[in-house]
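Colleagues,

For the teaching module next term, I've prepared a clean inverse folding example: a structure given as tokens, and then the sequence designed for it. I'd like students to try predicting residues themselves before seeing the answer, so please don't circulate the second half yet.
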């Protein structure tokens, strides 16, 4: 509710916000690259499908297919993918430590 107040308070949360902004900038750059090479008849991934749908619904003012949602969705998918990957690797290493004969 008052998240803008956090901008003025010192602490480690500021580093997290900077990292989030950096990842969102990366997602925005990926979207730009996809826009430049978009072929609506042959979408390659989620971003291409979303961009195609954005073009279809560009005259609908109530559409949820706009750039902000695309960047946010891409950010969410990136975070979800990296989190599950790191959890799987951590669990695998834990199993190797617990059962050294498997190594």
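(Answer key — instructors only)
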């Amino acid at each position: 509710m008052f998240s803008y107040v956090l901008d003025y308070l010192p602490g480690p949360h500021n580093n997290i916000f900077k990292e989030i902004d950096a990842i969102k900038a990366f997602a925005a750059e990926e979207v730009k690259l996809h826009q430049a090479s978009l072929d609506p008849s042959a979408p390659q991934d989620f971003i291409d499908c979303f961009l195609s749908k954005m073009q279809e619904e560009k005259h609908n003012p109530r559409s949820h297919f706009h750039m902000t949602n695309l960047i946010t969705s891409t950010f969410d998918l990136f975070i979800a993918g990296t989190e599950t990957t790191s959890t799987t690797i951590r669990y695998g290493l834990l199993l190797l430590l617990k059962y050294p004969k498997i190594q």
